[in-house]
Design goal:
The protein starts with a strand and ends with a helix. It has an 8-stranded mixed beta sheet with strand order 4-1-5-6-7-8-11-12, with helices on both faces. The protein has a 4-stranded parallel beta sheet with strand order 13-14-15-16, with helices on both faces. The chain has a two-stranded antiparallel sheet with strand order 2-3. It has 2 domains: about 5-185, Rossmann fold (3-Layer(aba) Sandwich); about 205-320, Rossmann fold. The chain has about 325 residues and is an alpha/beta fold. Helix 1 packs across helix 2 (about 90-100) and helix 2 runs parallel beside helix 7. It is globular, with a radius of gyration of 20 Å. Helices cover about 25% and strands about 20% of the residues. It has helices at about 60-70, 90-100, 125-135, 220, 245-255, 280-285, 295-310, 315-320; strands spanning about 5-10, 15-20, 25, 45-50, 80-85, 105-110, 145-150, 150-155, 160, 170, 180, 185, 205-210, 230-235, 260-265, 290. The structure holds asparagine. Asparagine (ASN) binds near residues 54, 88, 111 and 113.
Length: about 325
């Protein structure tokens, strides 16, 4: 049976070309628009250029537009969706979609590290693999996935790890959930289902701060204001903070601003294990919420989604802990 796949182009290098001076630029006409996927089997592609943006121009408001468009796709008879996206913020859009789309429909996000006319361009290849994954029966109910360089990654944990290499998307700690090989889609692991919050607005005022040796209170104090709705902190190691930040952290908590903690480490999960001044035990006792296994940018999207859905207090904590 022919699968009907919705293609949503948003821009990024996959939609760009190299000019005569070697610089990469956006195109007025998307180069993927004319690609034939005859070799991919029975698929009908319905294409929309929802944005034509470099991904550093992506915002939560635009992620919401994309999410709302995909949420309408199932009722419109689509069997899956492929989103093409710039790679710089792809991981944030992917988790936003994963957290806000509750349908079983396969949703695949892909991009490219080399633009459409560069030697060794990976755009058409990744696009074809993404369509194969979106139309595979095994992709039903897998949540949003990212397909790049023959690997299938869960949107929840995948991250860009290299500035230029085509093998840039990796899932630290857990690894990919599958591979695409010779057009065949093979899943090797499943990840736990998570709660979906189909929000229809996004709150501003959710920030991300990275901790460092000798960090003082200044950055945190600058965020201690009524416009701040929540802060994610990329803490040190297993989830610890320099002692000079504790006063500013306590003041943010006293002002009712949710503080969410992840680790700045590439692998592992932040846990409140260390019992010294600024250690995780201390931070958890203060009411800082530990968000397990997400990177800082992803935890920020999750906090933003939770707050935008109106979650507060224990509900917010439970959502972020899960
Ligand atoms: N490879 C890429 O897509 C990077 C580009 N700067 C973007 O994110 O739009």
């Amino acid at each position: 049976m022919t699968k009907k796949i919705l293609i949503l182009h948003t821009g990024g290098t996959i939609s760009m070309s190299e000019d005569e001076t070697g610089k990469i630029r956006p195109n007025a006409q998307n180069p993927l628009a004319t690609v034939s996927l005859a070799a991919s089997g029975k698929v009908e592609l319905v294409t929309e250029e929802i944005f034509n943006l470099p991904s550093p121009h992506m915002t939560p408001e635009r992620m919401l537009d994309l999410s709302l468009r995909i949420r309408r796709a199932e009722a419109a008879g689509f069997d899956g969706a492929v989103v093409t996206h710039g790679t710089d913020t792809l991981e944030e859009t992917a988790i936003f979609l994963d957290l806000t789309i509750s349908s079983q429909l396969p949703v695949v996000v892909t991009g490219a590290m080399r633009s459409s006319n560069e030697v060794g361009s990976d755009g058409i290849y990744n696009f074809r693999q993404a369509v194969a994954v979106a139309s595979a029966p095994d992709s039903l109910g897998k949540g949003v996935v990212v397909v790049m360089n023959d690997e299938i990654h869960s949107a929840r944990y995948v991250t860009k790890t290299h500035t230029t290499n085509v093998a840039t998307f990796r899932t630290p700690t857990f690894g990919p959930i599958g591979i695409v090989s010779d057009g065949h889609v093979n899943y090797v692991q499943t990840i736990n289902p998570q709660e979906h919050l189909p929000i229809d607005r996004v709150l501003p005022g959710v920030f991300l701060v990275k901790a460092y040796a000798g960090m003082g209170p200044e950055l945190l104090q600058a965020l201690d204001r009524p416009q701040t709705k929540g802060i994610v902190i990329e803490a040190l190691g297993a989830g610890n903070m320099p002692p000079q930040t504790l006063g500013a952290l306590q003041s943010l908590i006293d002002h009712g601003i949710p503080l969410v903690l992840v680790s700045r480490c590439f692998n592992g999960i932040a846990e409140p294990v260390y019992d010294y001044e600024g250690g995780g035990v201390n931070l958890a006792q203060m009411g800082i919420i530990y968000c397990r296994g997400l990177t800082g940018p992803k935890a920020r999207i999750k906090l933003l989604v939770g707050l935008s859905a109106g979650l507060t207090g224990r509900q917010l904590k439970k959502y972020l802990n899960s």
